[in-house]
Structures are given as C-alpha cells and as structure tokens.
Amino acid sequence: MYNFDVVTPKTVADAVAALGEEDAQALGGGQTLIPTLKQRLASPSKLVSLTGIDEIKGIRTDESGTLCIGGGTTHGTIAGEGSAYPALAALAGNIGDPAVRNRGTIGGSLANNDPSACYPAAVLASGATIVTNTREIAADDYFQGMFTTALEEAEIITEVRFPVPEKAYYQKFEQPASRFSLVGVFVAKYADGVRVAVTGASNDGVFRWTEAETALSSNFSADALDGLAASADDMIADMHGSAAYRAHLIGVLTKRAVAAAG
Amino acid sequence: MPKDHGIGASSKRREDVRFLTGTGNYTDDINARGQAYVHFLRSDVAHGRITNIDTTAASEMPGVVRIFTGADFEGIGSIPCGWQVTDRFGEVMHEPPHPVLAQGKVRHVGDPIAAIVADTLAEARDAAEAIELDIEELPAVVNMKDALKDDAPKVHDDLPGNLCYDWGFVEENREAVDKAIKEAAHVTTLELVNNRLIANPMEPRVALGEYNRANDESTLYTTSQNPHVIRLLMGAFVLGIPEHKLRVVAPDVGGGFGTKIFHYAEEAFCTFAARQLARPVKWTSTRSEAFMSDAHGRDHVTKIELALDKDNNFVALRTDTLANMGAYLSTFAPSVPTWLHGTLMAGNYKTPLIYVNVKAVFTNTVPVDAYRGAGRPEATYQLERVVDKAARELGVDPIALRRQNFITEFPYQTPVAVEYDTGDYPATMDKLEEIADIAGFAARRKESEAKGRLRGLGVNCYIEACGIAPSNLVGQLGARAGLYESATVRVNATGSISVMTGSHSHGQGHETAFPQVVAEMLGIPEDQIDIVHGDTARVPMGMGTYGSRSLAVGGSAMVRATEKIINKAKKIASHLMEASEADIELKDGQFTVAGTDKSVAWGDVTLAAYVPHNYPLEDIEPGLEETAFYDPSNFTYPSGAYACEVELDPETGRVTIERFSAADDFGNIINPMIVSGQVHGGIAQGVGQALMEGCVYDENGQLLSASYMDYAMPRADDVPFYSVDHSCVTPCTHNPLGVKGCGEAGAIGSPPAVINAVVDAMQSGGHDVTHIDMPASPSRVWAAMNG
User: Fold this and answer.
1) Which end of chain A is more exposed for a tag (fewer CB within 10 A), N or C?
2) Contact call for B652 and A239, based on CB within 8 A
3) Per the domain annotation, does B416 fall within a domain?
4) Which positions fall inside the Aldehyde oxidase/xanthine dehydrogenase a/b hammerhead domain (chain B) (predicted)?
5) B141/B136 Cα distance (integer angstroms)
6) Assigned domain for B306 exists
7) Structural domains in chain B (count)
8) Chain A partners of B774 at a C-beta cutoff of 8 Å?
9) Window from B131-140, B396-405, B470-479 with minimum mean pLDDT
10) Beta strands B353-362 and B314-326: pairing type?
11) Testing the interface with B: which of A3, A38, A248 to mutate, by most B Cβ within 10 A?
C-alpha cells in the first residue's frame, strides 16, 4: 500500500463532501479495493469509508412490497435477513466465505460491477432500482459493461430496491479457483413476465438473455428453453473456460434455475 | 486393545497444542533488534537484457539503507545445484550459473534484479519504484518442444537448444526394448502431460540474516526443510562462510512439500547483506512473490508405450519425457525426472525390459524442482494410466490385468536399477477391493445415472522409493551430498531425554512420533522425551526431511543412538547391582538381573551416570549421551492400491469425488493416526493436481495463474471422507524399525486413480475419450466429451 488518509463519516452528506476532494476514493467493505491497494495498483489520497453511515444499512419492505436494501448492507445481513426474497438471500449467502460476507456490501459490489460478481445478475433480473444520493437508476440503465456503471464521481449507492418476484432462482457455476461465478444465471418470474440475467460470461459484463425471457414468459418451464442457445460471441474466454463453454453453461444453468424456481 | 503409548499408539500430536493456540515460533515471528527489511525488485518480463540500472535516486529515498544489484555479487558464488546428471552419451549436464541477483539478463518473471534494504518495508517498496531500470525484452520460450528447436530463443546465451541433458536409462536396454515393442502382440501408446504445480505451503518463505561482528558469526533463520543442507550449500558454495561461523535455524515451518528443500537466492542475500551492513536483514515473501519465486513442481510431457504379449503379460515399456527445469537449475532439479523417476518405471509389475528417455529443458519460467513425491508421481501417473488404457483396449478388467502382472517374489531386482526388498501387492489390492467395495460399484453407478450423472471408477497401484537414500549409491548417480541421517540422544541426570535429530518436522509430527520409538525402547513415558530439530547449532550434521525419509533414516539413526544408550546404561546398572552385564534386562524403565529380584530404576542409572560416585570409572566414561549416523543400505518401497469414484455432471463437465479408498503398505507403523493424516493430506494434493491445480504461462512467459483467483487449490469440500487402511504390512527388511515412510504416498498414488475414474465415467456415457490431461477441470471435461 501507499500512504493514505482515512475518514469515516456518519452521514451520506458528509461522505459526499469528503469524496469531493481530489483522489478521494469511497471504501465499502473493501473486498476488492483493499487487495488492490495492497498490490499498489491504486493510490488514493484519501479513503472515505462508508461503514459508519447507519442510514445506508439495513433491510426493509416498503408499502408496495418492494424489498429495500441499504447500500452499506453486508452480504451476511442480506443472507440472514433477506428472507422476503429467498433467491436473493441465497445468492448473498453463497458469496465468498463468512469473512467476506461479514465485510462486503451490496453497494460496494454494484459500484465495482465485477463481470463475475453475483449481485448484478439479481439486480438486473429483478429490474431493481439503484438509489443514490442524487437519483434513482433503473437496473437496465445502470450496468454499462465490465467494471463500468452509470455512477458519477462521488455518487454513493444508498439503497437498492428489489420488486419481489413470484418465483426466482440464482444458479451459480463456480470458477474453480476464485469461486466467483464462471457463469451465473438469475431467473425471476413476475406477473408481467420473466427476466433472465447472466453474469460471469460476457466481456460486456452482466446482460439479459432476452430470447430465454420471451420463451419463459409464455411458458415458465425448463422445457421452454429447448432449442435455445446463447451466442458465444463476446463471451469471456480464459484458462477456466472457452467462450463456447460459457455459452453452453448459460443454457444449462438457465434450465436448472427455472426448474429450481419451481 | 490398541496401544496407548509407544510404537503403534495413536498418540495425540503434542506440537499441535502450540500450532493451534497461536504459540508456534515461525521464522516471521522472529525479529532481531534493529533489523532492516529487504524488498526484491523482480523482473516483470520473462526474458530480457538489462541495459540500464541506476539506483542513485532511489538510494536517496527516505529510510533506504542500501540498494544491491547483480554488480554487488560479482565474485560471489552461484546458487549451486546439488545433483549432476550424466547424459546417455557420458557427458555431464549443462549447468548454467544462477546468480543471487540477475547479472545482465533476466530469465523468468520474478527473477530478482535488485534488493532494496530499508528501515521499513514500505520505504523499501517506495524506493524500488524509484530505481531507473531499462530492460530490452527478448523473445521468451515457454513450451518445451519449442525450446528444443534450433532457432529457439536461448535462455542461457551459451547454451543452444536449451537442453540440460538427454538421459537414457537403462541405455544398454534401448535396442532390446525397441525390438520387443516392435514384435509385441499389442502396444498401448499414451501421450500425456504431468501438469505444472505451485506448492503453496501455508507459510510463505521467510529469511532473516544476522551478523555478529564480535565473533564473525552469521546466523540465518529460514523456512527450510533441511537447515544443514542450506548451511553447506550457502556457506561453502555461495558466500564462502565456514560452517563454524554460520548457523542456520529453521524453527517451526508451516509446510514444505519439497519447495522448502532448496537453497534460494533470498536466503543468501539476507545472510550476505547482514554481513555487509552489520545489521539484521529480513525478507518475508508475499503470496504473490511465492507464486513466482518458490520452485514449481512436475511439468513433464511424456509419451509412454506399453507392450504386451498375446496373453496380456507386460513385455516392454518405453517412455520419452520432456522435463521442464525452468530458467535455472534448482537444488535437486536434475535428479527429479531421472533417478527419482526412471528407477520407478517398473512400478508393481514384472515388466522385463524398460527404457526411459528424459530430456531436461530450460525455459523462461520459474525453476522446477521436487514437489511431494518428486518424480515418483510422474512415473506412477504415466504407468498406471497406460496400464488402464491397455486394459480398455484389450477389453480386460483393469484390476485383473494388474494382478496378472504383479511382482510376487521378493527381493525383486527391477530392470531399472533398484531392488525391491519386500512387498505384497495382491494383499493391498485385496484390501482395496474390500474397503472400496468394488463389488458395489455397479449399483452405485445406477444410482448416479438415475440422477443424470455419470459415475466412474478408477483403480491404480503405486510403488515409491523412499527412505532416501544410500549415500554410496546416490553418489554414483550424481548426488553431491550424502543422504544419511544423524541423531544424538542426550539423557539427562534425572532420566529425561532430548533427542537431537537431523530430520526436520514441518507438519509431519516428529515431535510426537519420534518419542514413541524411544519410549518403547526404554520403557519410559513419552513425555520424558523431547525432540530437538532445525538448528545447526544444536543438532549434529543432518540432511533434513524429504523423500519420506525421516522415520526410515532419521528414526533409524535415533534407534542406533538409543541402542548405544541402552548398552552403556546396562553397564552402569550391572555395576550398581553387582551383576554380570550379560544378565541385565531392561523392561518398563527398570533394569533387572535375570533370575533374581534385583532391580534398579532408569532414573537411578541416569543419575549415577552424572553423579558417578559409585561408578565403574575405570571402564566407562561418565555421562549418558550418544550419537549415531545412519546410512541406509537400500531405499524403502512403500506400495499400495488406490480407488477413486467420481460423479460427472455431463451437462457442465464438473467432476466430484464421491469415494476415495487407499490401501497402503508402509511397513511397520509407529503412529497410525499420524500415518492416516499424512495419507489424507497427500490425497488432497493428488486430487488437487488431478482436478484443480494448474500453473499456466502465456506464450510470452507471463504467469497467468499468479494468485488464488486463478490457481485452484483444493479445499475441504473438494474432497470426500477417505477410507484409508494400512494394515497390510510387509516390514522393510533393512532398517531397524521395519518402516518404509508414508509422507508422499497419497500424492503419488492418487492422480491416476482420479483420472482413470474420470475416463471411466466419460466412457460410460458413450463418449469415446481415452485420455484427459490434468487438471480435469469442468471446462476440459466438457470439451473432451463434446469434441
């Protein structure tokens, strides 16, 4: 690490103010940023820890039944207290290990938008809304490619609002080393249709598999996916799997997710 | 009733109390007053010429004590190699220099270029970034076949073709083997890769050098499996410090697996710099550094041919192997693909004709050396894979084919130099069939298939040469060291005992198992005996721990020293009881005179030795301390049979291990619990190699699997509950304990079982796949099944 200062503001307003300084960097649970700093791959002058801001922590259900999760809520809390949305709670409970889940936050994960992270699949498949200190961003507008989001400088995710689906399931296939998703598919069935989001697979980050959505919206069963194949174009190819393998897994995992969603 | 103490008891590992309560004393726990820290600036290219290195500005950075470069090591020795292989034409191998810090060229990613010593580590790292360094990048060579081409980039400028040696074994058999293969009724051929591995001990390497100006003594604390070997190599060959002025301490060491045998540049640097600066210098490897500076393991590419007669008897075996040495020769690297590999190609079988060819190749990669099993896993894997393939080609049961070809008479002189003293291969196979419930496999396969999974069964045998090694023999084979072991048994006045052993424990449990032996011999409680190891100032010259040698060689030295103790103690007892020495018996810590009720306790005799008021001073010296050096007359030959059952998800290619059974013959067993633990750990490493672990370089020599994000280590939930048995015992015939060694068996015996099972599973699903290279990761398995 290089030397840096740390501040731990108590309010979003103070955090935003602190982030206005040159080379200041927001710090969520630190599960990506701290290893990056250790490798001297980043050199912020100041870390603005968001861990002291109580107003962005916790889980509530609003009057319309939407599950609202504070951006500073840890995976562990979501796994334990997110039972209103079981598929989401299960997803959170399968991220990393207990140490990771007790530090890492949903806001941190979404702001980072790692192409193999799990939450982006849930957010996109749920048509969730990303709430920041300045605005509300629809999931379809939020994810803009690998490690790229709609967030502006000094914009902090304060809450993520998930419409709770009738049925949903997240099927993750782990990369053997990191146990991030080699491919992860989140399927969510709402009254007005089915959404399918895929993480881990694409060079463009999380995306919706619209052909599967169409098929499943008319017939929510694994059989409805017969004959459908995801394109291998723009899939990630690395030592853990070719583009064709990842494309193949999308089909397999989507079927399994639908079957498991019931 | 199982024994509760002494030989054969599952005594609890006493060292675990400190390991599990955080009171272990690892090298990084040791801090010297006023110590400085070193950070190594390492090459980020695989091959290049250093055209400029200017440390002027960096040297002015805050906290910097001094910056060293290769120029500071001119006139200092090269990191030595401990084994010289003679090739099949009678020429000695090529042995290019291995400087402590790069001189002129860098040859692999991670090659150290400069060493920045500063008051703090952060200051050292800051200064490293201020060094002006220009490297003219050269084309790198990573693939061994490419490296052997005439126009390949030269890792070492004066070594065209990058060939270290071309070894034939047994060269005299070459033509006879060729002829037998040509004329055989059936020949099974297999080309395979033994994947490159990174050892990843839990504790990264650490070195702390100290220098005492008052007496001109240097001390190196280091994470080593063999401190005396480091003292010899570093003192005599690199730094020119005589043994009496150099102490090497390897305190608690958190796993070695072979990669902590070798003498590394960082050790020499810290010792050298401490002398230059008259200040302690410490280096603690980061995990990232470990990936690119710890010697890697395996990395063989082999073609093997097994010839059988019309009755399915093995008649000849021929192998061609390329073995990766990396950029420099690590300490024992040349011996691994040759004498630790070729000598094992007979396996458990009476194949009469064998020829092994190995070409050792330099590449722009981290040096490769011994890793748990070292050569023997490579031999076992190719042999047991080709036997399995032959059984499938011939349509015969793989177990039956093995049984038919088993060696059954001992001693057995193999055609590859070694003589097996003892063994019973049908017995371990019988035991395996029982504990693995081979008969129930068909039913379990049906259950898996009902769930949409394929199920495979893989069986293999193994033999290894352990208890390394007879010094006169290995000397003829090119070893530049003896491979005896030492022990001093120091009996104190009140009867307690310290055993100083040249063996080194880095997880094996010597502190528990060794006292069991001495306690058994003397009939006193185990807790009266402590083991001292890992310090050249406290222990006689010893060769350390690797090659499953500690009990077979180090334990034998301890037995010999204890026998001397008993002999002397009986003399003292005979004097105290005024009886003939020949009539003295020792049992349960009491000396008695045969046929009488006279007795004297162990503690009375030991006290008399140190308070010799009533003592035969005219015949024997006071004191009770004896040393023995033991040099084995042969290797030991642990053997066994392993079975693995996998489930394979045909849609994803993911393989899970459902059952794993191991029937081993380790000879006599001192502590069954520790033996089981060694087998468990070995299998986990073998499973890791077979399914998960793979070191990957790109074509430019960049290490792609450079962290745990991409290098897949096995975890607890990747392995099943094992069924292990070591009740088949044919004691070693040539060491006093009849022990063979158990440390490497699991890692040697398990990879072929796993891959045989994966191939069986794929074939059961109708896939015409005869081989898959390790690691059999999901994507590879899926690709194999889908063309």
Assistant:
1) C
2) no
3) yes
4) 21-139
5) 16
6) no
7) 3
8) none
9) B470-479
10) parallel
11) A248
Average pLDDT of the residues in B592-613: 97
Same domain, B769 and B693: yes
Is the same domain home to B504 and B621?
yes
The pair of structure tokens assigned to B385 is 């894979």
Beta partners for residue A197, in sequence order: A186, A208
User: B692 contacts in A (CB within 8 Å)?
Assistant: 176-177
How many CB pairs below 8 Å do chains A and B form together?
Answer: 46
Q: Are residues B660 and B619 in the same domain?
A: no
Q: Which token pair is A115?
A: 């192409």
User: Does B288 contact A39 at a Cβ distance shorter than 8 Å?
Assistant: yes
pLDDT digits (tens, 9 = 90+) for B58-116: 999 999 999 999 999 999 999 999 999 999 999 999 999 999 999 999 999 999 999 99
Given a cut of 80, whether residue B252 has pLDDT beyond it is yes
Tell me: do B657 and B769 sit in the same domain.
yes
Average pLDDT over all residues of chain B: 97
Q: Is there a domain that residue B394 lies in?
A: yes
Distance from CA of B693 to the nearest CA of A (A): 9
Tally the C-alpha atoms within 13 A of residue B605's C-alpha that lie toward its C-beta: 25
Listed residues B583, B611, B630: the one ending a domain: B630
Residue of A172, A178, A226 to mutate, testing the B interface (most B Cβ within 10 Å of its Cβ): A178
Domain residues for the domain of B533 are 484-630
* Complex confidence, ipTM: 0.96
Classify residue B320: in a domain, yes or no: no
Q: How far is B18 from chain A (nearest CA, A)?
A: 24
d(CA B747, CA B752): 10
Is the Cβ pair B778, A248 closer than 8 Å?
no
Look at A178 and B694 and tell me if their CB atoms are within 8 Å. Answer: no
Task: Using an 8 Å CB-CB cutoff, list chain B residues near A176.
Answer: 692, 712, 777-778
pLDDT digits (tens, 9 = 90+) for B639-672: 999 999 999 999 999 999 999 999 999 999 999 9
The beta-carbon neighbor of A245 closest among B694, B704, B779 is B779
Joined tokens for residue B13:
């590992």
Beta strands in B631-772 (DSSP E): 639-648, 655-665, 722-725
CATH of the domain at B209: 3.90.1170.50
Nearest to B59 by CA among B68, B51, B50: B68
Of A104, A161, A155, nearest in space to A132 by CA: A155
Q: Answer yes or no: are the C-beta atoms of B756 and B686 closer than 8 Å.
A: no
Please state, in angstroms and rounded to a whole number, the distance separating the CA atoms of residues B82 and B47.
25
**Structural domains in chain A, sorted by start:** 5-49 (3.30.43.10), 54-162 (3.30.465.10), 167-261 (3.30.390.50)
Cα distance between residue B517 and residue B559, in whole Å: 8
Q: Select the residue from B284, B652, B696 to test the A interface by mutation, using most A Cβ atoms within 10 A.
A: B652
Q: Is B642 found in the same domain as B625?
A: no
Answer yes or no: do B407 and B501 share one domain. no
**DSSP assignment, residue A93?**
H
Distance from the Cα of residue B140 to its chain's centroid:
29
Instruction: Among B574, B602, B630, identify where a domain stops.
Output: B630
B413 and B495 together in one domain = no
CATH number at residue B610: 3.30.365.10
Tokens read off for B478: 């090119």
Q: Which two tokens stand for residue B331?
A: 């300490």
A94 Cβ under 8 Å from any chain B Cβ: no
3-state DSSP assignment of residue B88: coil
- Report the C-alpha gap between B188 and B186 in whole angstroms: 7
User: Residues B54, B55, B56, B58: is their CA dihedral positive or negative?
Assistant: positive
Tokens for B271?
């010792």
- A41/B contact by beta carbon, under 8 A: no
Which helix (H) or strand (E) segment holds residue B629: the answer is strand B625-630
By the 8 A CB rule, do A215 and A133 touch? no
CB B637 within 8 A of CB B465: yes
